[in-house]
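Technical annex, item 7. During the second reporting period the consortium partners agreed on a shared format for inverse folding records so that results from different sites could be compared directly. Each record opens with the tokenized structure and is followed by the designed sequence. A conforming record, contributed by the partner at site C, is shown below for reference.
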């Protein structure tokens, strides 16, 4: 019998292979098409938005982040503190970013730590119930749990390409379902995760 962990690993591998196979120029076009969502996400002008610096073939949310900033949002990026913890540090347009490992970058330790109102969540795979497979380290699940312990419940929007959808993600007690997924097809609200 295949374990939940092994099944997630295989689903992750397959979804990332599909994502990696997408045309690079097409992925760039899709990234810029997400800008249209900046005005449709219904955020207060001073909302704190956690984005992410794309790695490998991830959806590039930088154009969307820039459009949200133009509408008054304050931006932050995840910063890896250790093998289990990320925080979200303020991101300024001209700020120097540092290597965070895993092929991504984030603000250095001098940047203020912010608590996001909206989190754009990277993922490797997702299902129609809002369950996601990350990259296996659990950073986002733990960060969301820490925010919840402090009474904070940010809006979570998973960011992916349609090809990353799988039939069913095996879910565990610690997994956090995501109520919304933004892909090249648009924003999907997943009632089961609301």
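Designed sequence (site C submission):
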């Amino acid at each position: 019998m295949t374990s939940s962990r092994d099944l997630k690993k295989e689903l992750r591998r397959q979804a990332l292979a599909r994502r990696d196979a997408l045309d690079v120029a097409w992925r760039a076009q899709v990234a810029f098409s997400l800008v249209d969502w900046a005005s449709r996400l219904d955020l207060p002008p001073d909302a704190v938005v956690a984005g992410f610096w794309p790695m490998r073939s991830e959806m590039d949310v930088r154009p969307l982040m820039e459009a949200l900033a133009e509408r008054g949002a304050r931006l932050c990026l995840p910063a890896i503190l250790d093998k289990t913890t990320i925080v979200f540090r303020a991101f300024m347009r001209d700020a120097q970013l540092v290597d965070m490992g895993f092929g991504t970058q984030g603000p250095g330790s001098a940047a203020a730590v912010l608590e996001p109102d909206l989190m754009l969540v990277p993922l490797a795979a997702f299902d129609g119930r809002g369950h996601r497979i990350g990259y296996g380290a659990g950073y986002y699940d733990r960060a969301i749990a820490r925010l919840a312990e402090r009474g904070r419940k940010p809006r979570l929007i998973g960011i992916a390409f349609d090809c990353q959808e799988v039939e069913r993600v095996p879910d565990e007690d610690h997994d956090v379902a995501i109520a919304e997924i933004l892909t090249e097809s648009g924003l999907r609200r997943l009632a089961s995760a609301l």
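The chain has one domain: 4-193. The chain has a mean pLDDT of 91. All partners now use this format for quarterly exchanges.
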